[in-house]
Amino acid sequence: MTVMLLQGAVEQGFVYALVALALYLSYRTLDIADLTTDGSFVLGSAVSAAAAAAGHPAAGILGCFLAGMAAGFVTAFLHTRMKIQAILAGIITMTGLYTVNLWVMGGRADLPLLKVDTIFTLAKTLLGGGELAEQYAELITVALITCLAGVLLTLFLKTRLGLSIRATGDNRDMVAASSIDPAFTITVGLCLANGLTALAGGVLAQYQMSSNLSLGTGVVVIGLASLIIGEVVVRRGGVGRCVAGAILGSVIYRVLMVFALRASANPANLKLISACIVAVAIGWPALADRAKLARRKAAAGKGGQN
User: Fold this and answer.
1) If 0-12 CB within 10 Å is exposed, 13-18 middle and 19+ buried, where does residue 241 land?
2) What angle do CA 132, 134, 140 make, to 5 degrees?
3) Average pLDDT over every residue of 202-230
4) Distance between CA atoms of 126 and 124, rounded to whole angstroms?
5) Could you tell me how many helices (H) and strands (E) the chain has, helices first?
6) What are the C-alpha distances in Å from 243 to residues 13, 115, 117, 236, 285?
7) Which residues lie closer than 8 Å to 173 by C-beta, 6 or more apart?
8) Cα angle 101, 257, 72; round to 5
């Protein structure tokens, strides 16, 4: 494996780590399976690409985050106010976002950013435009964005509102009995989660110089696999540890994908390899528990014989 391929995998790992952080907030913290993710990811890429094409790449990054929060608000409204199940609310929002994304991209399924300034070209200028900037500007930029998002999320979840969101995921009835409105905490959590997802899509659009309506396919599964890989490597602990694990898990997932593709030497195997890695990652905790149980039974059997 070349250094360039490995660096590209790490860069994409940092980008998709934002999705893992979003799922940590919605799936792990709020205990809500939010399927808005696929749609809000494309929404973020569409807004970011459209803003960059108009000459405002930095504003596009902020705009995609706000657009993602709006998508999360719609899902939260359907779930908390209209009493639609969370998973169905996410599907409804995701379905509607397909048309919204098409509108944002000017009615096209693909929006290329040829000869357009992005946050990465701005980063190269800030770094001096030399050989070092050309080689590492993308890595530095995505690492800074993701790490900053991780730090801010960690600090937020330790605030009073953040603790209320965490308590909502643990026991919604207890939170309601404590004079805290669970509808409000769920709304804030889903808005932030989809904002992070859209931010990932926005950064990816400017990273690969294009936005496409199919970008969000399977994003929620990949993010969940990254989250679980991080939990296996780092182990569960405090908020900071979980956030760091989500970021590390995403990077590891992308590196594993590159290793697997290099081993197969056939790009057509990408989907199958990805599905196998995701299946192993998600099923790993259950496999580990079965292995522990088998070892305990074996040890108990040996003890009984002695």
Assistant:
1) middle
2) 75
3) 88
4) 5
5) 12, 2
6) 14, 36, 31, 10, 19
7) none
8) 30
Answer whether 257's CB lies under 8 Å from 274's CB.
yes
Whole-number average pLDDT of the chain? 88
> Whole-angstrom Cα distance, residue 306 to residue 300?
10
Residue 131: the pLDDT is 72
CA distance 80 to 182: 9
The pTM of the full predicted model, rounded to 2 decimals, is 0.90
pLDDT score, position 47 = 95
Amino acid at 192: L
Residue (of 102, 95, 114, 143) closest to 251 by Cα position: 143
Q: Are 43 and 150 in contact (CB under 8 A)?
A: no
Q: Which residues pair with 171 in a beta bridge?
A: none
Q: Report d(CA 71, CA 77) in Å as an integer.
A: 10
Backbone angles phi, psi at 214, to 5 degrees: -95, 5
Residue type at 84? I
Quick one: which of 253, 199, 209 has its CA closest to 65? Answer: 199
Whole-angstrom distance, CA of residue 207 vs CA of residue 213:
16
The 10s digit of each residue's pLDDT in 254-289 is: 888 888 777 765 666 777 777 777 788 777 778 878
Q: Which of 88, 37, 7, 303 has the alpha carbon at shortest distance from 195?
A: 37
Of 235, 273, 239, residue with least CA distance to 256: 273
Q: Supply angle C-alpha 183, 189, 191, rounded to 5.
A: 100
